[in-house]
Amino acid sequence: MWGFLLCHLVALAEPGLNPKKTYEYRYEGMVNIGRGMPNLVESGVRLVCKVKIIGVSAQTFLLRVSNLNFEEFNGIPGKNAFDASPKLTKRIAAELSKPFMFEYAKGRVGDIRTSAEISDTIVNIVRGIIGFFQVTVKTTQRVYELEEFGIHGLCQSTYANEEDANSQELSVTQIVDINNCKKKAAIYRGMALAVDNKLSKERGDSVISTVRYVYTVKPTVDGGLIKKAHALERQHFSPFNVKGGNSKLQLVLLSVTDTVVTPAVGPMISRGNLVYKFVKVLAQIPILMKKLDDPVPKIADMIKRLAQANIYQTDSATSEDVVVLFQLLRVTSLENHEVLWKQLSGNDEHRRWLLDTIVEVADARVLKFLKNRFKAGDVSANEAGQTLLIAFNHLAAETDLMEMEFLSMPFSKSHPMLWNTVVLSYGSLVYRYCTYEYDRSCPAAVVQPLLDLVIDGLKRNNEFDMVLALKAIGNAGHPSSIKTIRRFLPGVSAAPVTLPARVLSAAVQSLRHLAVRDPHSVQDITVSLFVQRHLPTEIRMLACMILFETKPPLALVSTVTAFLLEEADMHVASFSYSLIGSIAKSSTPDNHFLSTACNVAVKILAPKFGRVSYHYSKAMHLDWFNDDFLIGTATEIFMLKNAASYIPTEIVTKGKFHFIGKILQLVELGFRADGIKELFRQNIQVFNGHLSYADFEAIFKVLQDWKTLPGDKPLLSAYTRIFGQEFFFADLNNDLIQSVIKTVSPSAGKESPVWSMIENLQKGMSWHWTKPFLMFETRYIQATSLGLPLEISKYYNTVTTITVNAKAAISPPLTDRLGQLLTSDVSLVTDGFAGFSKDQFVFHGINTDIFQCGAELKSKTVVAIPWEFSMKMNVKQKTFEIDLPACKEETKLFSLSSCYNRFDVYAVSRNIEEPSRAKMTPMMPDSVEANKDIEPPKQRYLTSGQKVCAEANIYGAVFCVEFEATRSHYIDEYPLYYFLGYTNFACTIQPVQSNKPVDKIHIEMNASLTKYPVSVRHLLDTLQKLPKLCLQNSDGSIRTFVPSCTPPQALNANSEPVFAIKVLAMNGNTKPEGYEVAAFYTPAAQMDNTQLIVSQIGEEANWKLCTDANVDKVRQEQLKMHLRWGAECQSYEMSMKTATAHLPGSRPTLKAKIHWKTVPGYMIEVGKSIEKYIPGMAFLLGFYQKHATNAKHEVSASVVVFLNVNNRSNCRRGIPYSIEKVNKTCSFFPLA
C-alpha cells in the first residue's frame, strides 16, 4: 500500500503538461556583461514576453510568443535604465509569433520543430524558454545528482528538494556545472595549434560558469505543474578573479485554461533537441554589426577604397575597415568569388588586396577558389604560395576539406618554393582537421598522400623529397603515420636503414606532435634510438630531446639515468645531462611531475657530469610561470655537436607561451651545417678551439674552399616553425652561391638580372607593396541559459605598406660590365614609406547576427617611417653624400593608443535594425570626480604622463617620446582592471625653431682622406698655443692610469686619416652649421693608436670631443683610453685602463680602472647608481666581493679566476654556467 502511495506521489510531482490545457506564462530573460564593480559601465539586453503552451497530443505541444518587448542597456547599473528597441522588437516578434512545436513527456524536452524560415538565432532563444521545462523531480530523495541533457549540453546537475507543508508545493533547486559537461555546447576556433595540457588546466580555466534553477512545482493529477521558476547564470574569468557577466531568467505561470481549438500550423522541419545549436555562428565577427545583403558590390568598392587609401603609406584611419571586408567575404559564395576575381584581377593593387583578404573566408570555399586559380594558371607562383600558405593555416577545418587535390595538381610543382609550401601547408591542414573534427580518431586517409610521397622518395633514394615529406608528416602529427616513420629509423625499422643523417634527423623530428598525441609509442621509439650507441651522435641527442617532450614517467627517467652512467660519448652525456638539469628547475605546470623525476636524476648524474665543459653539446630550458595569472613562457636552446668537428651539427631554438591550460609554441628556428662541417673536417689544419686570432684565420681559409663541396650538398640548411608548424625551409648550396656570385660579379654583363635592375632604376622606378593580414583570430563561444551565445574572442589585424620611388644617374654610363659602377659617379633621388598599422580587439559578450552587447577592448599601434633624400657616391674615391629635406611638419614614427576618444575598454551595444543607436561607452568614467561615491580604498586612479624631447636646434628638428596613461585599479583583487583607462605612447619628430633657417641637411662621408680636415687642423693649432695642460702619470702604481699621449703628440706626420663624416644644416645664404667626426690611426712599433675627434662646425663654435685609444702590441691584453670634451677638448676629462694577466702559478686576473679629472654632474650621479648596482649583481652571480677605498675621482674593478670550479646558478632558476676548470670571484672598489 505504501509503495502504491509513494509511486502515486512521484507521479503527481513529476513535471508534466495536460494535452487538453493551455498554459500561459510570463517570461523575462536578461543578460548583462560587465565587471560587477561600482560605477563601472555595463551593457546588456532584456527580453520580456508572454508564452502560451497549447497541447496538441499526449506528448506534443505548441508554443507561441506574444507581447514581446526587446530592450538594450548601456550605462551604470542603478543609475541608467533599459531602453526599448522598437525596430529590433518588431523583427524578433515577427519570427517568435509563429508557432513552435516541441515534444515533452515526464520533464523531458524532445524534438523541436519550426517552419523553415525561422532563423537559428530565434530557435535558440526558444530553446532558452523551453529549457525551463527540462527538470527532474524525485520526491524520494532530497539531494541527488544526474547527468542530463540541457541547453548547455550533456552536463552534471545537482538537485535539492524541499516541500512546503502549508502549500504542499515543492521547491526544487538545480545546479548545473557547465565547466564539466561531457558534450558541452561550446566551440573553439583559432586555437587548434595550441596544445591542451591537463596539469595546466587543473590550476585554472579561462571561463568558469554555473547555472542555478529554482522551481516551484505544484503536484496535480496531470503531473507536477511549474508555477514559477527563475534561473541565474554566472561567468567568471578565473585567472584574473573578475566577474564576467550574469544571465537571469524568470518564468511565472499566469493561467491554465482548457484548450478550445488547437491552432492550425503549416509545414515544419526538425531543428533538433534542446541542446544549443551553432550554425554559421563564425560568420558573424563580434566587433562590428553590418548589414550583409548584396555583398559583392560592397566588397569591390571597399577593396578599391582601401587600395587607394594605402597607395603610398599606411592609412591608420581605415585599417579597421579591413575587418569589415573579412566579414563581407565570409557571407559570399564561390560564384561571388569568381565574379570578384574577374572584376578586380586586372588591377595589380586590387588583385593583391583580393588575394590577401579572401583567405579569411576560412572554409572550403576559399580552397575551391584557389583550386580554380591553380587549374587556370592565372596567378603567379609567388601569389599562389602566399595565398595558399595563409589559407591552409587559417581554415576552420570541415569534413570536406580533405577532398582538395592540391598535391596532385601540375601547377603546384611549377616552382620549388610553391611545392614546398603546398606540401608543408597540407600537413598543417591535416593537423588542424584532426584537432577540430576527430581528435585522435582522425581517419588515416587524410594523411595518406603524405605517406605516399615519403615512400616514393625512399624508393627513388631522393634525399630532398624524403626530407620534405617527413617535415610535412611532422606538421600533420597523425598517429597512423608512426608505422611509416619507423621505416626511416635504424634499429626501429624491420629492415636495415642506411640513410643520410639529414633524413634521419627529419624522421626523428617528425615525431614531435606525436609526443603529445601518442606518447607511449614515441617513448618506445626514442628510447630504442637513444640506447643504440652505434648511431650518429646527433640522432641519439634528437631522440633524447623528443623523449622528454613526451613527459616520461619517473621509471623511464630512471632508465635513461642508469644508461647515462655508462655512456662513453661525452656529447650525448653532456646534452642529456644539461637537458635533464634544465627541466629539473622548471616551474611550468606541464613539467610538474617531470621536474621532480629530473631532480632525482640530477643528483645521481651530477658527480660524473656536473663539470662537463661547454665544448660539448648542450641543451638549455628556461621558463617562468605565474600561478595568479596562469601565464608563463619557456625558452629552449639545443646545440648538437659530435667529436668529429667543433662546428655544431644542428642548432635549435624554441619559444613557448603558457596561457590558462594551453601551450602555444611560438617560434622555432633550426639550422643544420652539414656542408660547413664537412668542409672543416676535410680542410682545417690549425684550430685549437680557443677562438683566438689564429682560429679565426684558419676558419677564413677553410671557407675560401667552399667550391670543393658537391653542387647538391648544402652548406647550410635552415627552417622556421610558427605555432609548431614548419612553413619554411631552405638550403644554401654550392650551386646557389655560385649563381649569386655570378650575378653580382664585377665581370657580369648585360645578361645579369642586376643589369636590368640598374637600367630600370635609371629610367625611374616605383615599387609598392601592401599586405593586410589577420595575424590571429581566436574565438570561444558557449551557450547561455537564455539561448544566446556568450563569446570571448581576440582579433589582431595588421596592414603593412612599403613604397619606394627612385631614380639614378650614372656617369660615365655603363657599357659592358657591372664593374664599371666601382669607378663611376652614382647619384640617386628617392622617396618612400615603410610602416604598419596594427589593430587589436578583445570582445566578451553576446554576439548574434541581429544584436551584440558586451565589453570591448581596442588598441592601435602605428609605425610610420617616411623618407626623402638624394645621394651621391663614388666607390673608387670612397666618398658618399646624402641630402635630407628639413623637417617641416610633425611626423609620428611610432604610436600606441586607444582607437576612440580616450579609453581602451568600452561597453558596447549594437543592433542590426537601428545602427544609429549603437553605443560604445567607456567603462571607466571620464574623471575621478564622477566616481566620488566609490568607497576608498577599494579603488584608486593611477595617472601618469611624461614627455621627453631631444632638440637639435642646428638642424631644426626635435625628437620626442611621449607617454600618458590613466588607470582604474582595484587593489590586489582585480588585476584585469588595470586595462581600464586611457593609454597613449608616441615617438615623433617635430620641427623646431632653429638658429638659422634650414633648407636641407647635408651628410658627407669620406674614407679617402689624404690630409687633416679643417676643424682638426684648427684644434691642433689651438692646443699648440696652450701651456702643457696634460695630466701626468702617477707614481707608477697601478691604482691610477693617465695616458701619456695628447692630441698634439698623437696627430703627427705618422697619423693616417681613416674617415671623416660631416652632418651639416645648409642654407643658401649662410655658412653651414653642424658637426664633423674624424678618425685617425697611428701605427707604431709597440703600440697602435686610434683617435676619434668630434667637432662642432659654425662661425663661433669651439666644442669638441677627443678620444684616444691604444692597444699594446707586445702585451695585447692591455687597452688604454683617454676621453676629453668641451671647448677645444679642455672642459672635461676622464681615462680608462683595462688589463688581463695570467702568470704561471697565479690566478687569471682581469682589472679595469677609470680615472676622471672633471666630469659633468649628471655623470657623477650615474656613476653612483652603478656603484650601488654592482655589489648586488655580484652577489646574485656568485662572485666574491670585498670593499676597499680608491683614490679620489677613481673607480676600479678586479676579477680573479680560481681553479677547480663548482657550478653556480643565477638567482633561483638561472642558467647553469659551468666553465671548464675555472671558477669566478670578484672584488669591487666603490667610489671614494
TrEMBL record:
Q: Which cysteines are joined by disulfide bonds?
A: C155-C181
- What InterPro entries does this protein map onto? Lipid_transp_b-sht_shell (IPR015819), Lipovitellin_superhlx_dom (IPR011030), Vitellinogen_b-sht_N (IPR015816), Vitellinogen_b-sht_shell (IPR015258), Vitellinogen_b-sht_shell_sf (IPR037088), Vitellinogen_open_b-sht (IPR015255), Vitellinogen_open_b-sht_sub1 (IPR015817), Vitellogenin/Apolipophorin (IPR050733)
Please, which domain of life does this record's source organism belong to? Eukaryota
Q: Which Gene Ontology BP annotations are present?
A: cellular response to estrogen stimulus; response to estradiol
GO MF entries: lipid transporter activity; nutrient reservoir activity
Every copy of the Vitellogenin domain together lies at 17-651
Keyword terms:
Disulfide bond, Glycoprotein, Phosphoprotein, Signal, Storage protein
Name the chain's protein: Vitellogenin 3, phosvitinless
